[in-house]
Write a structure and sequence with these properties.
single chain; 67% helix; mainly alpha; 0% strand
Length: 85
């Protein structure tokens, strides 16, 4: 577990560079968000965000996190790293 945690922290340091230096799709970005939230917080436990339909990104981020519910923090870290590379 310790090695995985170290790899995850290294991946986090490089996330911004990877995402801004590439043509990462919005789908990839929100997928990474979901795995990040699951790895650092755990299952989402709030309701679907309400508000302006133009703010689709908030809904997409919520759905990405919600789809990871039940995934262990370690598995979420592994998936985050896999998607990032």
């Amino acid at each position: 577990f310790f090695e995985l945690n170290k790899l995850f922290l290294v991946a986090l340091k490089h996330t911004k560079d990877v995402l801004t230096g590439s043509q990462a799709s919005n789908e990839t970005k929100v997928q990474l968000y979901g795995y990040f939230k699951q790895a650092t917080i755990g299952d989402s436990n709030f309701e679907i965000p309400q508000g302006d339909p133009e703010e689709w990104i908030n809904f997409a981020k919520y759905k990405a996190w919600e789809t990871t519910n039940g995934l262990s923090k370690q598995d979420a870290m592994r998936k985050f790293i896999t998607v990032l590379i």
